[in-house]
Design a protein that fits this description.
alpha/beta; 3-stranded antiparallel sheet
Length: about 325
């Protein structure tokens, strides 16, 4: 049993489940359900997406325990430069969505959305470039939806918009390696996300030379300390990102980004701007392109206002209990 995993009673003593509305449909969601827990270090969040199985969700619970009950990690900076995250909206909606993030210099554009076309993606990226201007940075994220030929074709069509990198254009490590070789002369970097956080071996993509940088998320990798170890072992530049958490979960990502010795890229930690409600009166939204590194004070009135339905509370408590059993008993 990991020393940072408290008893089930300790985890549930101050637990609350909330359902937060989104401003824009994202990842197929209109609302974000999550569980808040309070440890001696402060509030922590347990929020694996509902479709994840218990074994994958257990890593998120380990991160929750490490955040609320584990040791503090030294950090190198007190604020984190962040990107705006642009969902797969129509091109006409792009300015309104990006304005919610304020004065950021980088935008991550979601592409390859089911039911949309590459023409839709090109129009969205074009609108983002027009909004940012020539000095801005644009990265696109396909969430592994393209095969190698599709990704290469998309790269050709998106090249005029001066991309910073392609994030998880293909699903497998072998595909990423092949695409990276095809694009070598273009000097268009490949970033790996799902190939790190959803892989049995999160270092396989680096070992295979299949990516130029890694997108690291604290919660799916078991917490700040575990994510730092993976980043150090991989030996590649990293982008610290989020998974549509509340400000509580985002604050863990900010502490991870603060603890990375060299932070060369803007981080995907500004997604509180996509929420129509949060669990704090001082949400971790970007100000002048950055978010501060700080713990979040959860507001009880907001938690009660956005409390999930009783059946969903029961679902999350049952899920936490199963994941806790996996961590403590290895079942």
């Amino acid at each position: 049993m990991d020393a940072t995993v408290p008893s089930l009673d300790a985890l549930l003593s101050d637990a609350a489940v909330v359902s937060l509305p989104l401003r824009t449909r994202f990842r197929g969601l209109d609302r974000r359900e999550l569980m808040l827990l309070r440890g001696p270090r402060g509030w922590a969040e347990f929020s694996p997406f509902v479709e994840y199985d218990d074994r994958e969700a257990a890593a998120w619970l380990q991160a929750t325990c490490d955040e609320g009950w584990g040791p503090e990690v030294p950090h190198y900076r007190d604020s984190i430069p962040v990107n705006a995250t642009l969902p797969a909206v129509a091109a006409a909606q792009v300015p309104a969505v990006l304005e919610r993030f304020g004065a950021v210099r980088t935008v991550k554009v979601k592409v390859a959305e089911r039911g949309q076309t590459l023409d839709d993606d090109v129009a969205r990226v074009r609108a983002a470039r027009e909004h940012l201007g020539p000095a801005g940075r644009i990265r696109v994220d396909a969430n592994g939806a393209w095969n190698v030929d599709e990704a290469e074709h998309a790269a050709h069509l998106l090249a005029p918009f001066d991309l910073e990198y392609l994030e998880q254009p293909c699903a497998s490590v072998d595909e990423l390696a092949e695409l990276r070789e095809r694009l070598r002369d273009w000097q268009l970097p490949i970033a790996a996300d799902e190939s790190v956080r959803k892989a049995e071996d999160p270092l396989a993509v680096a070992s295979a030379g299949a990516a130029d940088l890694l997108v690291i998320k604290a919660a799916p990798l078991g917490g700040v300390r575990a994510a730092l170890a993976i980043a150090a072992d991989a030996g590649l530049p990293v982008v610290i990102s989020s998974a549509l958490e509340s400000s509580v979960g985002l604050s863990m990502g900010a502490r991870l980004a603060a603890a990375v010795p060299e932070l060369l890229f803007d981080c995907g930690l500004g997604t509180a701007a996509l929420l129509a409600a949060d669990v704090t009166r001082e949400p971790l939204v970007p100000v002048n392109g950055e978010v501060p590194v700080r713990r979040i004070d959860v507001d009880g009135d907001l938690v009660r206002e956005h409390a999930a339905a009783p059946d969903r509370v029961a679902w999350w408590r049952d899920r936490l209990e199963r994941c806790h059993r996996l961590l403590t008993e290895g079942e």
